[in-house]
Structure formats: structure tokens, C-alpha cells
Amino acid sequence: MSGRVTLAAVAGAHGIGGAVRLKLFTASLESLHLQKVFHAGDRTLTLQDLRPDKAGAIARFAEIADRTQAEALRGTTLEVPREHLPPLEEGEYYHVDYIGRTVVAPDGALIGTVKSVENFGASDILDIELTGGKTAMVPFTRDVVGEDGDRLVIDPIWLG
Fold first, then answer.
1. For residue 19, what are the contacts with CB-CB under 8 A and spacing of at least 6?
2. CB 56 within 8 A of CB 8
3. Do the Cβ atoms of 22 and 64 come closer than 8 Å?
């Protein structure tokens, strides 16, 4: 996999000095701390300060000086080149590597496509858009989800 990976999105301004609230797409702030420069649409932002917040994080960028500039960033995603991410340990994965993957039944019948990987506290869950237009969520565990090349294999019994 190559390209850019989204680590966060700007949720809005925080205060009057140019700080922004971030919605995180990472497991911890450490992933953002490891980065110094982010691609934000057609511009580059240099991280000056980052601290936790009840709903994500508060960040300050060198290029953003006031609330008006901070508000203009609302909805902007913060991306980094994939090669800037730390290497994975055995059994680890990046969610982005599964989004968009085809899901099939053990007999090869098309089930759908992975829309997102969620985690509500216990373990990761695949959100799958089924071929009929509905969605299903299944536990993203080895006993439920298998891999066959680029395809994910799930027994339809898990689809409800």
C-alpha cells in the first residue's frame, strides 16, 4: 500500500488563538506526536503543540494564527505519507488497509465491501456494505474473518 493515510480531521476552532479541535483516527495521540508535518488539503501544516481533549485532541499549527483561520480548517483531514508511519508488529494492521476490500463467503460468493473498521471498546468490528445495499457489522477476529489474497472471507451466518 502507498499514498497518504488520514490520521485526524479538524472538528473546529478551539479558543481565539488559532488552536483546533481534532477528531482522531488513530489509537492514541502518540501517532500524531510522531509526525511534524501534515498534508491538509492543498496546504501543509506544521504541528507546534498537541494535547489530549475529552473528544480527541487540541492542536496548534505554525501556519494558523487566529480563530478565523482555524474555523476555515473545519472538516479538513490531516494526512501523512504512508512511509512515515511506524512499522507494524506481528498481528498488527492499519485500518486503512482493510477499507474497500472485497468480502466473500467461503464458497466465493460476493458478500460486499468493507466500509470502515470501528472499535467501540472491546475489539475491532468490520462495517460491511452488503451487495443488496444494507450494512452488517462483524467482529474482526481470526475465528470470524479469514483472508484469501486481497479478499476477506466471512461465513454468512455472521451477517445476521
1. 13, 49, 58, 59, 60, 64, 70
2. yes
3. no
What is the distance between the alpha carbons of residues 126 and 114, in angstroms, rounded to a whole number? 7
CB distance 156 to 110 below 8 Å: no
Contact 152, 103 (CB under 8 A): yes
Nearest Cα residue to 7 out of 18, 33, 16: 33
Alpha-carbon span 57 to 106, nearest angstrom: 42
Cα dihedral 86→92→98→102 (10° resolution): 140
Burial class (CB in 10 A: 0-12, 13-18, 19+), 144: middle
pLDDT digits (tens, 9 = 90+) for 92-128: 788 888 999 999 999 999 999 999 988 777 788 999 9
